[in-house]
Write a structure and sequence with these properties.
By secondary structure, this protein is of the alpha/beta class. The protein is built from 8 helices and 5 strands. The protein has one domain: P-loop containing nucleotide triphosphate hydrolases (Rossmann fold), CATH 3.40.50. The protein has a 5-stranded parallel β-sheet, sandwiched between helices. Helix 3 runs parallel beside helix 4.
């Protein structure tokens, strides 16, 4: 059985960019759960949350994860909070290998500042300023990410090509 490669981690750690390259080089389908949710709903994540709160988004996310978990041989980039839902993890673990892409807070903040789309489409998770939110959520999520991860890859100071190459050589 060909397992799915599941990329998880905080916003700005390279899940989508790296995932696209890995999928292309391995000739596998690529899915980004956030993009799938937005395409199906016709709304940005910011709009989904504004209309129905984070629970509305998480419900759509659970549905997308459940569908993708049934596939084989895919590369899947998860939204940063997807693994906080134990059902998502359970579904994906049956046929998935989890790679936790990490980066330090300063690197993430810089990447998010340079990615206007991310900030435009995604609302704050904590209601605090961006740098404080990054530090807060990294501390909160790290134990969960660590528990779920089959492997950890630090993307700090590395290009997406370097990270993708490391994934494919293991």
């Amino acid at each position: 059985m060909i397992m799915n490669i599941i990329l998880m981690g905080y916003r700005g750690c390279g899940k989508t960019a790296v995932g696209r390259i890995v999928a292309e080089k391995l000739k596998r389908p690529f899915f980004d759960t956030d993009a799938l949710i937005q395409a199906r709903s016709g709304k940005t994540i910011r709009e989904i949350v504004a209309d129905g709160g984070w629970e509305a988004f998480r419900t759509l996310e659970r549905s997308a994860v459940e569908e993708l978990a049934g596939r084989k041989g895919c590369v899947i980039a998860l939204g940063g909070g997807a693994v906080l839902d134990q059902q998502n993890v359970k579904e994906l673990k049956r046929n998935g290998f989890f790679l936790w892409l990490t980066a330090d807070g300063a690197t993430i903040a810089g990447r998010l500042r340079n990615d206007g789309v991310s900030n435009e489409q995604r609302p704050s998770l904590s209601g605090t300023d961006s740098d404080a939110e990054i530090d807060l959520l990294l501390r909160e999520r790290e134990p969960v990410y660590r528990l779920v991860a089959d492997r950890v890859i630090d993307t700090t100071g590395r290009s997406v090509d370097e990270v993708a190459s490391e994934i494919m050589t293991e």
